[in-house]
């Protein structure tokens, strides 16, 4: 099926690895012109660029207002047109388990700055460049779409990672539900949706694969009995971003946790330890 991305300018944040890299590759396969943002290391992006002239790689810190403005200027200059599709994929996750009672303010602030404020800055600049172009000979606004990469953490919470869970919850609820009303003021057919992956086979999932018992309990709570691959997420993102496949879909958050309906069941030994501590 032709999903209508031939010649469409797609900007992907956090594109250098994992889900972001899979998304970038899939859009390229479908004929899009892709502006791929990364923060510190481009990873495989530079190698892909040498064999694909529809990829433009841009370094930018999404927490810096000027850097985000420059990101869109560079992307627009590269393709001689503004971005029509935005994939908000960037984000940070602290690997170490830290309960709220022990969490430093610096960790909290950093996570909100990257995941939440960074998404605000990028989405705002995306809409601003579309509004400016609308007055002239801008891009085809019928293709406009935003897809947010949320998380099952935003729905169920994430013990010892409250900073991450809060940012994802905000993005896939209030941010999503509000932006779907605002985007149509600029692009009448513009759509905003999100996906909420559970465990995905990326660097972030290393703790899962290094702990057989945790993996067992995770799969026991997942009806599909497997961990998602980045390509699983990328395919759903592609469909949501398509004005052909999802023309009447907006304000929707799609769970991609394999049917998981809650957090991972705790180890029974945790209850024993808790009960002992209460004596």
Characteristic key phrases:
globular, 7-stranded parallel beta sheet, 279 residues, alpha/beta, 45% helix, 7 strands, Rossmann fold
Fold and architecture overview:
Belongs to the short-chain dehydrogenases/reductases (SDR) family. Keywords: Oxidoreductase. GO terms for molecular function: oxidoreductase activity. The chain has helices at residues 18-29, 45-51, 65-79, 105-134, 153-156, 162-182, 206-209, 212-220, 230-241, 268-278, and strands at 9-12, 33-38, 55-59, 85-88, 145-149, 191-197, 253-256. It is built from 10 helices and 7 strands. With 279 residues, the protein is α/β, with parallel strands linked by helices. Strand 2, helix 2 (45-51) and strand 3 form a beta-alpha-beta unit. The relative contact order is 0.14. Strands 3-2-1-4-5-6-7 form a 7-stranded parallel beta sheet, with helices on both faces. Helix 1 packs across helix 9 (230-241) and helix 4 packs parallel to helix 6. The protein is 45% helix and 13% strand. The protein has a single domain (9-278), classed as Rossmann fold.
* Parts with pLDDT < 50 across at least 5 consecutive residues: none
What amount of the residues lies in strands? 5-15%
Tell me the domain tally. Answer: 1
Instruction: Return the average pLDDT rounded to an integer.
Output: 93
Counting DSSP H or I runs of 4 or more residues, the number of helices is: 10
Helix content: 40-55%
Task: Briefly summarize what is shown.
This protein is α/β, with parallel strands linked by helices and 279 residues long. The protein has ten helices and seven strands.
